[in-house]
Write a structure and sequence with these properties.
By secondary structure, the protein is mostly beta strands. The protein has a single domain, classed as Porin (Beta Barrel), CATH 2.40.160. The chain has 1 helix and 8 strands; from the N terminus they run H-E-E-E-E-E-E-E-E. The chain has an 8-stranded antiparallel barrel with strand order 1-2-3-4-5-6-7-8. The termini are far apart. InterPro entries: OMP/PagP_B-barrel. This is Outer membrane protein beta-barrel domain-containing protein. Keywords: Signal.
């Protein structure tokens, strides 16, 4: 495995570990909140796909979203993302956030790495559901624009 891929894998594992620790520190008032599992349908450069993931709360204004998805980009491509969200409106039912993170893609025998920059918003539906929309640009080995619409539960 190339050193850059190893470093990316270690970063994703580290973000998962931090998020898991932060998730255990929530108080009992968070019980009415969604479990922060997410499912979305989207497009990456016009190619359809889907993703599933988990959001880890790091505080009132911070969260990390760890995602896995598949897109039909000429051939089926698996994409793994870890994105940091800074919540600009934490007390509002409409949560707006910029995001930044890493992207790791696998297609056949090709592995690619990139970075994510974008923005998203989520809004409450009937408890325990909320909807979200995210737009991001992936730069690096496989550049492109992604848009995902989905639900948290």
């Amino acid at each position: 495995m190339k050193p850059l891929y190893t470093q990316t894998l270690m970063l994703v594992i580290g973000l998962l570990a931090i998020g898991s620790f932060a998730d255990t520190k929530t108080n009992s008032t968070a019980a009415a909140e969604p479990m922060d599992i997410r499912f979305g349908l989207g497009y990456f450069d016009g190619d359809p796909g889907m993703q599933i993931g988990k959001d880890f709360q790091l505080g009132q204004r911070s969260e990390v979203a760890v995602l896995a998805g598949g897109y039909n980009q000429d051939r089926f491509t698996f994409r793994f993302d870890a994105d940091y969200h800074f919540i600009l409106t934490p007390d509002s039912p409409l949560r707006i956030y910029p995001l930044a993170g890493v992207d790791f893609a696998i297609r056949s025998k090709e592995n690619r790495i990139g970075g994510n920059l974008g923005a998203g918003l989520s809004f409450n539906l009937a408890q325990p559901f909320s909807a979200f929309v995210e737009a991001k640009y992936v730069f690096g080995d496989w550049e492109g624009f992604g848009l995902v619409i989905g639900v948290h539960f």
